[in-house]
Amino acid sequence: MIDQLIKKIKEMDNATVVGLDPRLNFIPSFIKDASYAKYGKTLQGAANAFYEFNKEIIDNIYDLVPAVKPQIAMYEQYGIHGLNAYLQTINYAKEKGLIVIGDIKRSDIASTALAYSNGHIGRVKIEDELIEVYKEDFITLNPYLGYDSIEPYIGNCNAYDKGLFVLVKTSNPNSGEIQDLEVDGEKIYEKVGKLVANWGEKAMGELGYSRVGAVVGATYPKQSKDLRKIMPKTFFLVPGYGAQGATAEDLSGCFSKDGLGAIVNSSRGIIAAYTKEDYSKMFKAEEFGKAARQAVINMRDDLNRVR
Hints:
Blueprint: H1 2-12, E1 16-20, H2 29-39, H3 43-61, E2 67-70, H4 72-76, H5 79-95, E3 99-106, H6 110-120, E4 124-126, E5 129-131, E6 138-141, H7 151-160, E7 163-169, H8 176-179, E8 182-183, E9 186-187, H9 188-200, E10 212-216, H10 221-230, E11 236-238, E12 262-266, H11 268-271, H12 277-280, H13 288-304
Parallel strand pairs: 1-2, 1-12, 2-3, 3-6, 6-7, 7-10, 10-11, 11-12
Antiparallel strand pairs: 4-5, 8-9
Helix pairs in contact: 2-3, 3-5, 3-13, 6-7
């Protein structure tokens, strides 16, 4: 799957991943009103609005970007109806040829990790049947419990050609409280980066990068440059661009010399672009999908200046 991601980035000349993280205040009134008329102001009504919103976004960007990244928490909080919208969104994105990165950030002991892994990127066994459930192509993981919490996912990566992005240096303001602590002369994020690079040697793709990638925030440009040296064969998933304040120049160190090595996420900056002053002058609320498309084009061109 890492090879397919690289090929799609090259084909589209675009290292953008669109974060499908809907919130009710992002959804235009006409979509919410139609959903509430059918299901009421209920969990199902909200979840259906998310799916209808996501479909319009996907319809307008699928030919421009290699991947989308739904954040499961935005759906999971609405219970079974929200999870159904998450599954519907994944299925629709894959119908349109998009790679799906499930932002699930799981972490647990080995037996539980295997259950998460089977459900999200592997198969669950029901008697003599193997069934694919969530159907993500990549998922995000937290490495805090160490290798035995990661190993089950690597097995499914290799068995089913899937991929991982392991948290190494995250984009949030307080990430340094733990990740920047020094142990034996090294920052924790550096130690974790070395571990991820080592784990990745067990799951190499054919194009020079591992199926085991890393989450590296664009909001910390010095650290991202250091990590690129530590992890030359590791593909980065890079949050922090746009709404969190990072610029294209900040994330230039995430890319390898070949212009690959990273895919950059934007969520609010794309899916809620129609609410921003620059785009609201050009697009009505009913044209939120067209605004998202223009935001993708602008981001692609911005990233390509530094790739």
